[in-house]
Design brief:
The structure is a single chain. By secondary structure, the chain is mainly α. The chain has helices at residues 2-15, 20-40, 48-61.
Length: 64
């Protein structure tokens, strides 16, 4: 997941270097959303949303 995020975001970040703070802030928000999903989503009978939260965290970690 990190590699996909790096390959998607890094060229855009280099192209629009004046908005570099935005390219840092958005992945951090994705990480926070993933951590909240990992913590609070799902139930004992359906833990799969937690794995989705982990994937979001991994996607957010790539560009940062």
């Amino acid at each position: 997941m990190d590699l996909k995020a790096i390959l998607l975001i890094t060229p855009l970040s280099d192209r629009f270097h004046h908005h570099r703070a935005l390219f840092f802030s958005l992945p951090v928000c994705i990480q926070i959303a993933g951590l909240l999903m990992t913590t609070y989503a799902g139930s004992a009978s359906n833990p799969w949303p937690r794995y989705g939260g982990l994937l979001l965290v991994g996607f957010g970690l790539g560009p940062t």
